[in-house]
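== Sequence, structure tokens ==
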Amino acid sequence: MIVRPVPVDAFCTGSFMTERSPSRAPRPRARARRTPARPSPSREVTTADRVANHLVDYIRRNRLRSGDPLPSELRLARELAVSRGVVREALRSLASTGVLHIANGRAPRVGSLDGRIVARFLEHGLSTEQLEQPQVLDVRAALEIETVALAARHRTDADVEALRAAVDDMRRAGRTRAPFVDADIRFHDIIGRASGNPLFAVLGAAIRQSLDGAIRAGLHSRRTPDELRALVDLHSDIAEAVAARRPAAAQRLMRVHFIRTWHYVFGTPPPAFGAPSGATPRGGTTSGRRTSRVTAPRS
């Protein structure tokens, strides 16, 4: 439910009266029907809701940036003529959505973009079976195939160095699952940041967090050293395509990566992204069962 921000002067006077619709002529009362009661889809707007909306409006009107402080809890309570408990509830509500960052003994600060809320939303959808893992992985593939092309165009030397370091960590980890997965996640996070668009980084990280179990299952299904080596080699090829500023090649290689991942995790052909043209594993298939390197034409 979207609640319109309450004007500041309403808080200063302590007035939280809701708007009333214009008066209308009374209608004849119809005979009541015995129908089952239905729960209301909306809830009553609380004082804390109004304080929260006021704070969001305050951030916008004052053009505050991430990390900038807001008035303290005590000051807000005095200026808005509400209890500190109400202000505290509003602050916690905004902190739970990432709008604010709060810490004991410090004034609240404007929050920074992160994917916690998106990840929580996706995890809820998966746990309640409103979403399925293949659907989420399908979206992740589409997002990261585009992201890696942007990374190849906008990457810095530091990004390339970080990608190569992540590949080296994957290679050293071998069959040790936790450090391997950590390095793999870091690799994709770096690509998101290198894209130059913070939304790609935030959304990509959120989707990967929600698919943590599938990521680990995909690693576990690669049972032989050759299969793990092929996975690491493919990440290395992606890193080098990004380093060489070859967006089309990077996209084709990333598509191969997700085709293989899909086969290892779900054992079925991917429904939404087909085999890439011009980038296939030497010796045959993109199913992920071969261990040879991937070749791609120059962009």
User: Anything to note?
Assistant: Residues 1-40, 274-299 have pLDDT under 50 and may be disordered.
